[in-house]
UniProtKB/TrEMBL annotation:
Domain ABC transmembrane type-1 per the UniProt entry, residue ranges: 66-277
Protein name per the record: ABC transporter permease
Residues passing through the membrane, by range: 12-36, 70-89, 96-123, 149-175, 196-218, 259-278
CDD domains the record matches: TM_PBP2
Family indicated by similarity: Belongs to the binding-protein-dependent transport system permease family.
Length: 290
């Protein structure tokens, strides 16, 4: 017997589809259009094919920015994931202090990105910043506007301060979902603290950790505002990540064709790596289901 399917539910999501079309699809098509054409002004375009993509693939500037971006994201993940898990494991599980810690951990996440950059820009200044003045008084040469290592350390510490809370909160939520029966069984077996973490807590929070890794990778790989406000991409090009380099190319040099090709390649890299994470998460869910 044929069943009648009611398609009226599509009208409920139609406003969302329209918003997505105007906010994502149409701008993306505009970028694609610029990536295969050249213009000399006066709204006159000429077909360029894949010339801009070839130019970007051969661009040492883009590969250098990609290398810096990958290094930054790798360092961020290597620090924030273990640190977030450590913080979550040591947070109170219930009572007043649990609520207090949750509120405290949420505060950095509420600060806008440009404000975070401004805070650390002032904080690291040698003349008026607490961090810069203290390090200078201790005889440590710290100048994030002129020193390569100081700039990288400042940007990394700033991101760790801003986003470790997200990993900690996700890991904490995963830990809270573990039934007490697991801990009681571990206590009866006289399992060590490491054994409890290795065989009970870590497997149970793997799903939320994959979400945390995915979110932190995507955000760190697209970071722009914070390092731009603090260092402006300097000293030299030492902190010129992909997003900063792309903005300089598009707005600073007004090379719309190469910038459009650059942005599409940038988008595809993020999409590919996000798909890998999604596949891994899906396989983990299937394994846990069995």
């Amino acid at each position: 017997m044929n069943k009648t399917v009611n398609q009226k539910a599509w009208f409920l999501i139609l406003p969302v589809l329209v918003l997505v079309a105007f906010s994502a699809v149409i701008p993306l098509m505009t970028v694609v259009n610029y990536s295969v054409q050249d213009t000399f002004g006066n709204n006159q375009f000429f077909w360029a094919g894949i010339d801009w993509f070839r130019e970007m693939m051969a661009s040492e500037r883009m590969w250098d920015a990609l290398g810096r971006q990958i290094a930054f994201s790798a360092i961020i993940l290597a620090i924030e994931i273990p640190l977030g898990i450590f913080v979550a494991l040591n947070m109170p599980k219930k009572g007043f202090w649990a609520s207090f810690c949750l509120v405290l951990m949420s505060l950095p996440l509420l600060i806008p990105w440009n404000v975070v950059g401004t805070i650390w820009q002032i904080f690291g200044r040698v003349d008026i910043g607490l961090l810069g003045y203290t390090l200078d008084a201790m005889g440590i040469d710290y100048n994030y506007t002129q020193n390569f290592y100081a700039a990288w350390i400042t940007v990394i510490v700033m991101d760790v301060w801003h986003w470790t809370s997200l990993v900690a909160l996700l890991a904490y939520a995963g830990l809270q979902s573990i039934p007490d029966a697991y801990y009681q069984a571990a206590k009866i077996d006289q399992a060590s603290r490491w054994a409890v973490f290795r065989f009970i807590e870590l497997p149970k929070i793997t799903g939320v950790l994959m979400i945390a890794i995915l979110l932190r990778f995507m955000d760190s790989f697209m970071i722009y505002t914070e390092p731009f406000v603090v260092t402006g991409g300097g000293p030299g090009n030492s902190t010129t990540f992909l997003s900063i380099d792309l903005v300089k190319m598009a707005l600073g040099q007004f090379d719309l064709g190469p910038a459009a090709a650059f942005s599409i390649m940038y988008y595809l890299v993020i999409l590919l790596i996000s798909y890998v994470f999604y596949t891994v998460m899906t396989n983990l869910d299937k394994r846990d289901g069995h």
